Amino acid sequence: MKRMLLVISFSQLFANIVYSNDLDYEDLEVINVITPVKLKQSLKDSPNAVTIITKDMLNLYGITSIPEAMRLVPGMQVTYRGSNYTINYHGTNGIQSRRVNVIIDGISLYRYDFATIPWHALPVSINDISRIEVSRSPASSTYGANSLLAVVNIITLRPEKSFNKISTFYDSNGSKETFLRLQKKVNNTSIRLSTHSSYQHGFDKTFANEDYHSGIGSKSFNIRSTTDINSESMFEFSLSHINATNKIHEVESGEITNPDIERKDTYISGKWSQTIGDHHVQLLGTYFNGDLEQDWRSCRPTIMMLHETAALYKLNQSYVFSLLKGKTPSGGTVEDDAALSALQAKLSELGPNAKLDSCTDLNQDLQEMRATIELSDTYQYSENLRFVGTIGTRFETAESDTYFSGKQSLNTFIASINSEYKPSKLFTFNIGGFYERNNDIGGLFSPRFAVNYHLSPSHTFRASVTKSFRNPSLFEQRGNRSYTLYNIEPNYTGRETGIFFATGQSPGGLEAEKIISQEIGYFGHYKEIGTTLDIKIFKDRLYNLQSTKIDLFNFNPINNGSTELTGIEVESGIQVYDNLMLNFGIAYLDNSTDFDIEKTQYSHWTGFLATSYKFNSQWQVGGGYYGASNDDHTQAYNRYDFNIGYHPSFMKSNNLELRFFAQYQPNPRHDYPRLPNFAASRDKRNFKLENQDKTVLGIKASLRW
């Protein structure tokens, strides 16, 4: 609050110098966003920093995937491990992406069952994107829990504004993509149909020069339609389906087949919009169904797959580990000793076979479902005051014998209201909050208060305070992990199926992760030189964090973590001439924490510089630099991109484009997060991965009509 008052006082001090009553605010060419508060507003009225990535930026800078586009966001930390991306705003826990929400055309892709984003299986092609808005601030006050640090809002091309297109891409690393989009208008309905197939190459080798099995492949289709019912009413429909393959090198030791992930996800949404006087009402319904299959075959000693061993492990883990080490357990309870006697009797029955290896099938299959319905109303009370309110419910299930020993479900009620108030040309206030309740956590309220002071039509200071939450996932809260073993060969157990001896069950009772965020910033629009400048200074205090690494042998999630994030971010877009475009961003972050896991994705410095120059109607060049500094738990990242776009003169209206890519990465390696006992059961040689090619060349051809 002191920082907010300081900014307001500072702004008032210089208001008489910069502000003039002769200036017409309506003359300023504004840049509009909708993500921060779900109200269409200019960047100078936004309560927080927002990064806008347009379809032209994606094309001219040679960005070929949505995860790689996140490197254009100041403060966003991107890690690729060959089979998936981990993407977090301001980093922190690098084990998974669980503190950023991703929304595509109104559908959240956040997976509540495991608190993650399927970056390798997004149901949209980069070719269909109109723009990406990244709200770089905690956003639970607008989108509810699980938008703890930021929101990535992907907005695709509207059917009535799209066009037919076919494209293909291939690079020397083995990555490839094909894409087809068709557009049609039937009466008052516009339809867009897209299909997409891609493969992204993973890492080649471990540092021990062993082959590394990794890569991401997907096939998807997408249908989106808009129907103009009348001048004040519209219906929008979308259907997306994706089949994705995620090549996984290893889940456990002893594998004799690769534990690849096969994912089939379907997303459906329908939205009805109606304007009634000063009210704009929307009814949104969404449905998601996911089917994940991951199975493999591995071998282990028979003693590890006995039901008697698993029963003893649930009572006394140290007894089992003593037996596996060839020692005699002691010091337990009467019940422990009884279970030990039952196991010893079984071992006597098996004799030498108890130590012989048997091979089995096992899986980590998962079925997911989520259905939501939301009613919202945007109300223009006056020229100076607007509201948007939402009420709704969400129902989700997760079913897995491995992760939950069956099926789990959760009901959530939501209600929110956000407002924009402009008492004068000098001030804009954004005030709002989001309430939600479910049967795991109870009720949570996320408030936000922000004020923007306009020194002039082109220069604004802002300050905000917000509180946000991340609910514990179903797995963190209710996980009950065990592995049933099938097709045992040779089978010495005397049973049709076995069970891996180690099991884990969450103690439950977790609370939500919490953050109190303070931000002051400046936004300037230097129209005469085609430049925007945004500066953000922040202090985020995160507490109640689930900062333990959950694995089968240590299944004890607790809210014991905390960290304080402070820093500054600068972002600018420059387009002095129509044929020259430049974007750059740099971020400094200080992460103060006693929990190593909260630094497993942490760089003091991250940044980018991207530019494009158009020589004429046929030739264009673009390039960029993307970098992140190293830290105790992470490795430095440096990459240089260059691309050339060519439109052959024999094609009318430049409908055919050829684009040539070159990418140079001086040190194309990745270190897994270095934590104490991070992988006691894995070969540590596999922690470090590398690509053999530092330079990758590619070509993309696209035709539109």
TrEMBL record:
* Membrane among keywords: yes
Q: What is its main location?
A: membrane
Q: Which GO terms describe its molecular function?
A: siderophore uptake transmembrane transporter activity
Topology term for the membrane: Multi-pass membrane protein
TonB-dependent receptor-like beta-barrel domain sequence ranges? 348-660
Every TonB-dependent receptor plug domain range: 43-148
The protein, known as: TonB-dependent receptor
